[in-house]
Design a protein that fits this description.
Layout: E1 3-5, E2 13-14, E3 28-31, E4 38-41, H1 43-54, E5 61-62, H2 64-76
């Protein structure tokens, strides 16, 4: 499962499932903020993603691979 993190409230993690292929529910394309991998999310996740970018925040979306790598690096200090 891929996640979308919130830069608005760093204490809140919002889990939003994403798929590597377009489905009936996940029809909006987003790109990972670290590796630019394209994935598909539902309309609510896409709206959150768009609002963050329009507001000038960093890309809040991370694919599962990048999220795990980032967590491992953060854990190692």
């Amino acid at each position: 499962m891929t996640t979308l993190r919130s830069d608005l409230d760093p204490n809140q993690q919002t889990l939003i499932p994403a798929t590597s292929i377009m489905t009936d529910e996940n029809q909006h394309e987003v790109r990972c903020g670290m590796c630019a991998r394209e994935l598909y999310v539902d309309e609510d996740a896409h709206r959150f993603y768009s609002e963050a970018l329009i507001s000038g925040l960093d890309n809040p979306f991370r694919c599962e691979v990048c999220s795990e790598e980032y967590d491992d690096l953060a854990y190692q200090g």
